[in-house]
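The following record pairs a protein chain with its ligand, zinc ion.
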Amino acid sequence: MYKKLSTLLTILTLFTACQSSQDSVEDNSIKKKQPNVQEITVSREPEVFTLKPETPIVSEVYATFNLTTDLSHLSENQKKMIPILIETSKIMDSLFWLQSYGDKKTLLSSISDDNLRRLVDINYGPWDRLNGDKPLVNSQKEKSLGANFYPKGMTKEEFDSTSDNNKSSLYTILKRNNKGKLITEFYHEAYSEHLEKASKLLLEAALLADDNGFKNYLTLRAQALIDDEFKASDMAWMDMKTNAIDFVVGPIETYEDQLYGYKAAYEAYVLIKDKSWSKKLAKFSALLPILQKDLPIEEEYKTETPGTDSDLNAYDVLYYAGHSNAGSKTIAINLPNDETVQLAKGSRRLQLKNAMQAKFDKILIPISEVLVSPDQRKHITFPAFFGNTMFHEVAHGLGIKNTINGKGTVRTALKQFASAQEEGKADILGLYMVEKLYQMGELTEGQIMDNYVTFMAGIFRSVRFGSSSAHGIANMLRFNYFAKQSAFNFDEKTGYYSVNPEKMSTAIKSLSKKILTLQGNGDYDGVKKWVDEQGKVSPQLKAALDRLTKIPVDIVFNQGVEYLNLK
Ligand SMILES: [Zn+2]
């Protein structure tokens, strides 16, 4: 009975990342330093739930999924490299334990209850990440906001009065010297033993790399791990385009530091690029200018030319480690975070396909079995789920960034509603794109009804995360809009929802027009009124969502060489 919506809606959240529409939602409860473009700044999308205070049962909250993919196209060297990358990932995992809690072994061996030990392991410490970091162990105190990056009992005044220039560095921890005074230590010193090992492993991997770009990146990253200078390797990461394997590794995101959002947490992803989907995405991106011209709205709202050079690719994940594996699982990454690298090279979006498959199989399908009309369940398909998510990403490129009436950018004009409108736009124009691409014969697999019904089921999944995030609000506005237009229908007798395809198609056009108009006019008051009136979960939907209590809220992975058939 974890995920009662009533409690859900009251919690924290979050500001928004974009990325995967359907998965949407979330980022943690703290403000990190906020650069201007939100899409770029927030590069992962954990999910936040609230749970009841009793100790959760692992198998009820987390569905298990095996991380694997087809590796038959890889060369012998590439196959030899993967275990090395996984070894390196495990080091990142140990480092993240040190950052989030401290000594893993002592903690785990002190817990006799199997369920609790597993839960603590999943959470990288004795606090429940899906429940606002509530202690999982009775004797345990509240989690320190600064995790293990700062000494116990450090006050903000103490931090402020410290003159050490490196205190707010991404890559230092703070400690006390023997006189009790705060000092900083760089990661490469504090964790030197681990990092030297990881660095050596990366150099070993580099020797096996067939792709020169990847070889260069791994070599530079090996150096970065032991001197905390990451820029060159970030640049090299953006430069590589043809690699079959990717490896995101190092101290990257700062969400674990809820005190200041300064300190980067170690994580790793071992990734295999899905070349066929990546190719399709590049093709669809190239069609953006044509699609832009065709948007269902007056000319003045579509005068900008969409960029077609976005670096958006699909991957399967072989291994998650450290921060990326803690709490809810990321299904989309947007990196690098270094703004100077972004300015020089842009950024890359990585859609994690098998992780999406996990959420589809283990969460979306079970939800639809409770809420979607039986005759339409056959339309809930993974290609449609994946497609909707990808088209959401591509559709961010459509529409306009500047108002048409001199109110400046859409973002500044719509203030706190800007993100929700932008996410709403990407969701609806993603569907519009799907319709167009079918009409143009560019999309052949499946049928449009799959996208519609899967889209609706995706909203049920997303709104369970709460409605206070930009994605949450966007979802509610859209759900209520479709319900009002009878594109989504609720059968009182059976309690099932269904899609009316004709009305859906009409509603997609009118909603696209509505959002593009509000954005183009920079109509803050109009948006506010809409959000106030329609940005909520209706009692009917709330009752429906309350029927989902038996469905897991997140995924844990079985992962490692033993799941990859590499031996
Ligand atoms: Zn988005």
